[in-house]
Write a structure and sequence with these properties.
The complex is a heterodimer. Chain A is mostly beta strands. In chain A, about 10% of the residues lie in helices and about 40% in strands. Classes of the chains: A mainly beta, B mainly alpha. At the A-B interface, helix 2 and helix 4 of A face helix 3, helix 4, helix 6 and helix 9 of B.
Chain lengths: ~280, ~325
Amino acid sequence: MKSNFLKSIVVSFSLLALASCSSDDDGEMDNVNPGQVTLEFDNGFAGNDLIIGNANTANANGEALTVSRLNYIVSNIVLIDEDGMEYAYPKESSYFIISEDSNDELADNTKVVLENVPAGTYTAVKFGIGVDKEKYDQGLSGAGDFWDAAGEYDMTWSWAAGYKYINFEGTYTSNSTTDEQYWVHLGRASDEVTNYTETTIDVPASSAIIVNENMAPEVHIITDANALLTATEVVSLEAYENAIMGGEGAVKVATNVPLAFKIDHVHNNKAGNSSH
Amino acid sequence: MVLLAVIGCQSNDDGYTNIPVELEVPAHFPEVTYNLAHNPLTKNGIELGRKLFYEGAVSSTGTVSCGTCHEQKYAFTHHGHTFSHGVNDLEGTRNTPPVQNMAFLENFAWDGATGHLDLFPVIPITTEVEMDETLENVIEKLKNKSGYKKLFAEAFEDGEVNSENFLLALSQFMVTMISADARYDKYINNQVQLTELEQQGLALFEQKCASCHATALFSDGSFRNNGLQPNTKLNDLGRSVVTGFVEDNYKFKVPSLRNIAVTAPYMHDGRFGTLEAVLDFYNSGVVDSQTLDPLLRSGERLGIATTAEERVAIIAFLNTLTDDTFLTDKRFSEK
């Protein structure tokens, strides 16, 4: 986390003109007095702040990571209200690159601003990490500049052409090795092994995301980089020769990914104000 | 013969002219896998794609286009090259596969490096030994090259010269490249009769080859280890390079056999110069390994047993898959 205000570049898929714009409204909420919701993704490491370039304490494998890059794609955002009703942010605008990178030429992206969210009291947020099969199968149509932006943030692959969902790199030190480079790149292996995951995280008890035309709530989400390798599947970097880019290692990381996120707190700001 | 029907017309002030083109799918072909609803074919989109296919600016040196290694008269392969040469005469490690019937495939490249045709061109463009370029640079070069602004404006409603429209145009062109007018197709459509030898070959083919080389595409699209002795110098692991799973070691996509007579050399590494050599290999050269395809194992016997006579008949049949209409179709030529 950086204390200064972070320049936020939100890149989204642009909509191609659709021949038919009608949609089934059943079960959807009326968009009365809509407001803005900001999701802030604050990278942490095992309860501490994640500082790019600084060593963290050793994880469950005895590997102490120094992270140089944690970039990921957040997609398909859904807000769930107290009655369990779901508001899905328009899919074509729902792909975002979150980035903290040691490359100073890349602006950090930590905030996702959702516009025109129907008024309501929301108690959970659901989202995907990566690019779902439906979007992948659309190829480049509607991608606009998203492919290029993803390329800029090293979130595309050419040898297995597609998006990287997570690009998590740095060095680690253990009993057997010092300052060893590691690469964890998560992406689609095949139609059967997509490694795309979704997570649903609740707001803390007795809190809520209150949305209406007068409010601009900010949802503070902590992403625990440590959990990517340890949440439920304990993944040793050394065991995978420092590079996890597919296969069993990637599948294990994908199992951990949904568990890396939690909502720390919500600021129910008045529109026009920002708490930080 | 495949015809593209023009079914309507719509324009805007920026030169965009939407002349929809309907893809006519041969009746004996499987379903189209490419999602045409997301990238509707238009006359100008296809034409832009054709121009881009033969555009050298996609490479870092400005000299290597898609058409350099994908030559029409060899069913868009690099005839005579075991491996294809890219920029600065660097050589790859795999044999150039044909560009044909792309609208019907599930995966692309020998190892299925991508499951979407739109993303496929990214691979050769960015590979060091092929075009060694970045997509961003390609787009910059096209923006500065005369003519392209107009062509993109005519082909796409938003008119942007960007990676989305670049790749969509290439896909539109490749989707139209259907080979379905070989003697075999005419036989299926009751227009010609096969010779006795060719018919024998067809019967043998159906019995011994068609479980993998299935459907009118002559491939089931799966990844299999066909028992080639790995070339230790290259140690190409094939599909597992993409998936990372050891059970995918040495598996490669089952290639289509359409136009096979003109696409020598054969196999992912182009090791066999003739179809005779390929059939000899299946008869007596298959090497066992952990991932060898089960269909190539019956008890102790590996491979596909054939007599010399049978091999002659099978090759006679394979020759009926050559589609001269496709190999000379002006719509796919550099012009």
